[in-house]
Design a protein that fits this description.
CATH architecture: 3-Layer(aba) Sandwich
Shape: globular
Radius of gyration: 17 Å
Order of helices and strands: HEEEHEEEHHEHHHH
Number of domains: 1
Number of helices: 8
Distance between the termini: 48 Å
Helix content: 25-40%
Strand order of the largest sheet: 1-2-3-4-5-6-7
Mean pLDDT: 91
Structural class: alpha+beta
């Protein structure tokens, strides 16, 4: 019995159901069953956003951990920020929870997130590494050692609330003709500098070369500059 898993797994199901309701095309789903883990990936597309990706690693049996990673990328001409949410859960506590609206251009929903995150009294800020400071906003939620039911509920609440606010606004901001592809590629480049992402997956038994390719092609795929 794990209170943490009992809270976070339904959250992931809520997120997937919410995205499924917005997707325009057939859901792209892959799953890999390993020795004591299940690695699932969901990719959604929508007329208002370019790509949403949810990755779930269920290694409760082998390593006593459960992980969810999520991003939503707007179209390249959309100033709506990049949506990111990550949570790493042991059986007794969340060791890391990260949520941000990473800025592209000037957008009301970005200002909403900064205001909303500033009011979270339960948030336990963490010192971020240099690669993270390059791409995350001043309002980024970065918390650890979350184990109390009230804190778990508040984390789930802000994740779902901000997802609904984001989906309501993405693709609806007036376009200025500016391209944000360089900022998107910069986001992906710095995310791939996080040493903990491949280390965790390699520790589960996934081949390093396979996961490095996954990072480049699925997790944080950079786009050539000649594509729009």
């Amino acid at each position: 019995m794990s209170l943490v898993w009992d809270k976070m797994i339904p959250l992931s199901q809520n997120i997937l159901e919410t995205l499924e309701q917005t997707t325009d095309d057939e859901l792209k789903y892959t799953a890999e069953q390993g020795d004591g883990y299940l690695w699932e990936n969901y990719i959604f597309t929508n007329r208002n956003y370019r790509r949403a990706h949810v990755e779930i690693v269920d290694a409760r049996e082998a390593k006593k951990i459960w992980v969810m990673h999520m991003t939503i990328f707007p179209e390249f001409d959309d100033p709506t920020p990049i949506f990111g949410f990550d949570v790493v859960c042991g059986a007794n506590k969340i060791t890391g929870a990260f949520h941000d609206f990473s800025k592209n251009g000037n957008c009301p929903v970005y200002a909403w997130f900064l205001d909303r995150s500033s009011k979270l009294e339960w948030n336990k800020p963490r010192v971020l590494p240099d690669w993270a400071t390059q791409i995350f906003s001043p309002g980024m939620i970065a918390a650890g050692n979350i184990s109390e039911e009230e804190e778990l509920d508040k984390l789930a609440d802000i994740a779902i609330e901000s997802l609904h606010v984001y989906l309501y606004n993405v693709g609806c901001v007036e376009k200025t003709g500016e391209s944000y592809k360089e900022k998107y590629n910069n986001y992906c480049k710095f995310q791939k500098m996080n040493p903990h992402t491949p280390a965790m997956m390699i520790n589960l038994g996934i081949d390093e070369k396979v996961f490095r390719t996954f990072m480049d092609e699925v997790l944080f795929p950079e786009e050539p500059n000649d594509r729009t």
